[in-house]
Design brief:
Distance between the termini: 12 Å
Radius of gyration: 21 Å
Shape: globular
Oligomer: single chain
Helix content: 25-40%
Structural class: alpha/beta
Low-confidence stretches: none
Order of helices and strands: EEEEEEHHEHEHEHEHHHEHEHHEHHEE
Number of helices: 13
Largest sheet: 7 strands, mixed
Length: 394
């Protein structure tokens, strides 16, 4: 058994001062002693001058793109339409891809990440996921250009879904985004998921061009799609926004992870929350800066008290896979958001989104959430510094 304490424990639900956490040899929390801040020197107690938080949940990643680090330069990316164009033209599958994926998986664990909502278009990452000590829920993502190609696209997604099932890995077949899933493909995805409540991930409002395309079938994103032979007549854009298209046809009981939300406004939040009680708004701030050179209006989501989560996106649009770095970016730009709320987003909300909060997301007796120590913490303002570091304790 290990006994661990620190200046503060952020459990994901509360803040404890100098509490003692007792953990068995398998990482299960067997006791939490609230010392009310009056800890005394004890035998076999590990005490740290920092804050302890649960293991992080990376709610959005593309592990299979781990070989693309630095290939698409941030300074040359001209927003999402340009990024999409570059990723289609520059994506390749090098011989050392498994090695790159394994390295990224290890990097995430070293950065305190214990579970990941991961996007897969291929089966390249499946073997590494099956051997990882990180929990993965794989979103088998489908997109195509027309109804004509939809059956083949869905068949590939279904084959990958079944491969994951054979490896006892959790997965869902999901649409990529409002603008990349023609009607027939969307119907096939909805039909596949109709018998059970599912966890759905879908990219949402990453660029103003999404809503423009929905309303007018024009704009830079529309031009890129047309150049890539998308057949607009096979897409029913009968809603007012990309958000409404994304949510149409999904069940109210589905957990719906809306990814990025870079240009979602307060009205969009209200619309989304009216449609479903199970929306999780996922932010990847460093990726947003990399591609669009801007951030979502994250404070308004916290003001609305909606469920928010944190992701890293992939090496195609990031230089690191670190939830701590994402939180530091949010803190730098929006210091008014309390640190405890960020930890709730990065831990408990992510676990709820992936339906694993019985094991992860908060420091509670009976759970195996992992424990991270954050050092060089700003105790005066109870928040992160740009120099804060992470150490995995459990």
């Amino acid at each position: 058994m290990k006994r661990i304490s620190a200046a503060y424990i952020y459990t994901g639900k509360s803040i404890l001062k100098k509490a003692v956490i007792e953990i068995d040899d398998k990482g299960k929390i067997i006791n939490i002693i609230d010392t009310k801040g009056q800890i005394t020197e004890q035998e076999s107690l590990e005490y740290y001058n920092g804050v302890i938080v649960p293991g992080f949940i990376n709610a959005h990643c593309h592990l299979e793109l781990s070989h693309m680090k630095g290939i698409i330069k941030s300074e040359t990316v001209r927003g999402l339409p340009g990024f999409i164009d570059e990723i289609i033209s520059k994506r390749n599958f090098p011989e050392d891809l498994p090695e790159k994926i394994h390295k990224a998986d290890r990097e995430m664990r070293m950065n305190g990440i214990v579970a990941v909502g991961d996007i897969s278009n291929t089966d390249d990452s499946f073997e590494i996921k099956s051997k990882s000590d990180i929990y993965y829920h794989t979103f088998v993502e489908a997109f195509t250009t027309s109804n004509t190609t939809a059956p083949e696209t869905f068949l590939i997604a279904e084959e990958n879904y079944n491969k994951l099932k054979k490896k006892n890995l959790e997965s869902t077949i999901v649409p990529h985004a409002s603008y990349s899933v023609p009607d027939l493909l969307k119907k096939k995805i909805i039909d596949h998921n109709k018998d059970h409540d599912k966890i759905i991930s879908i990219h949402n409002q990453e660029t103003p061009d999404e809503d423009e395309m929905i309303k007018t079938k024009s704009g830079e994103l529309a031009e890129i799609m047309l150049q890539r032979k998308f057949i607009f007549s096979d897409f029913t854009f009968d809603k007012n926004s990309s958000l409404e298209i994304n949510l149409s046809g999904l069940k109210k009981n589905d957990n719906i992870l809306l990814i990025h939300n870079t240009f979602s406004k307060e009205d969009d939040i209200i619309t989304g929350e009216t449609i479903s009680d199970n929306i999780f708004w996922v932010f990847c701030p460093l990726s947003n800066q990399y591609i669009e050179k801007t951030l979502p209006d994250i404070p308004v989501f916290f003001e609305k008290s909606v469920k928010t989560c944190i992701g890293t996106d992939s090496y195609a649009s990031n230089t690191k896979l670190s939830i701590l770095s994402e939180l530091q970016e949010i803190t730098k730009n929006f210091p008014q958001i309390p640190f405890e709320k960020l930890i709730e987003s990065a831990c408990l909300n992510g676990a709820k989104a992936l339906k694993i909060d019985n094991r992860y997301g908060s420091i509670e007796i009976g759970k195996k959430p992992g424990l991270n120590l954050i050092t060089d913490f700003d105790f005066e303002n109870m928040t992160l510094k740009s120099s804060s570091k992470i150490k995995v304790l459990v």
